[in-house]
Amino acid sequence: MKIKFGSIVSAAIVLCCWTAALGQSSKHSNPWEPAEISVIPPIASLDSGVWLKGDLHVHSRHSKESSNNPIAKILHFSKTVGIDYLAITDHDNHVLGDVANNTWVDPEFKSDSVILLYGAEWTTVRGHGNSISAIPYDHQRLYDVRDQRDVVIGAVKKGLGIHLSANHPAGPKDHFGYSYDIVESMEVWNSVVWPKNANSILIWDDMLSSGRKLTGRGGSDTHHGVPTGTEQETPNSKQAQYNYVGTPTTWVYAKSRTPQAVVDALTDGRVSVSQNPYAPRVEFYADLDRDGTMDMMMGDNIRSTGEVVAFRVQLTGKTVPTEPYTVKVIKNGSEFQTFKMKGDNPMVEFTDMPATSGRTYYRVTVEGPSTPYPEVPKSTEMSGNMVGLSNPIYFNFDPNF
Questions:
Q1: What is the average per-residue pLDDT within 371-379?
Q2: What is the rounded distance in angstroms from the CA atom of residue 320 to the CA atom of residue 334?
Q3: Of the CATH numbers 3.30.457.10, 3.30.70.660, 3.20.20.140, 3.30.530.20, which one belongs to the domain with range 50-395?
Q4: Is this structure's pTM higher than 0.90?
């Protein structure tokens, strides 16, 4: 076969021009590319707050499938085990949205020791969420827009001034099918059975990696109490021996012991979750200049300087000094490092350099010996060796995202 020289030259010219075109720099500029953040609010004090423990997902007799669980029983139990705050979140669809004239007006809905938040479980065909507020609000409006577009729901929620949280987001039936742009937090640990939350954790990391500063919280989702007095046992009564108030327990570092401070801390992400009210609390801090003094904690956000940061994980409360605890550090959704710690005050420190461009977050989980919960004696059988988890420490997250 003969190939003419002229044809070869022509083909070479075409190939050269095509290659050159490919090599040209694109004039496209992505308008959504993360830009330098102009202002990040200053970090709040690490010394002027108080740790409060509570449960943000509890059902009383005002939820129709609940049994032997009047509000008075819930509050008496909570006080006994040292619960500081509580959100009784009955299903709003059981009263067609009128929780204000059901749960909230119940004569038993009062306490001189437990901080009571106003809320309900927003129960819809697209999923469940908990609405949480320091003061009464018009929940009927939120119920009425449950089947509207997310942008409408988000506007109504904003107008009500409430905290909305996604419940059991990866549940097989009652998942969360709305946009995460309309919520401030999500239930990453639902009920006593820790392993069933694996998919919820995946969703949480997806949301964090995309730039959403979204608080992870717990919730027992308890419905059933132990029969007492004239109450009759039901097929579900045994559940109270496994799962009740505080399984798990959500800790908030609040500025004061008030309902609004609890909601604010939840929104800000100064939150960790533990196995039960007696289990040690996971605390996660960062020392920005490595001078030995902690400068920020979980939930806090700051611009990265390109310098190495020292991080500290510690357990506070009742621990087992002779047993090791395993700390898993998650960075940007992937396992970063794993450590062992033990002793009377278990603590571990590590260092890393958050990138100066783009977002970086770190969070931790802690596994180890279970802490007995005598009031819910079979709970540790279900939660296994999961001790607790922290919320993230953030770098370069846009507060206006």
A1: 97
A2: 28
A3: 3.20.20.140
A4: yes
Token pair in block for residue 22: 């490919």
Please measure the distance between the N-terminal and C-terminal CA atoms of the chain and give it in whole angstroms.
Answer: 65
Average pLDDT value for residue range 104-113: 98
Amino acid 220 reads S
Residue with tokens 């717990």: 218
CB 62 within 8 A of CB 103: yes
> What pLDDT, on the 0 to 100 scale, is given for residue 27?
84
* Domain limits, the chain: 50-395
Q: Which of 126, 276, 109 is nearest to 189 (CA)?
A: 276
**Strand 163-166 relative to strand 127-133, pairing:** antiparallel
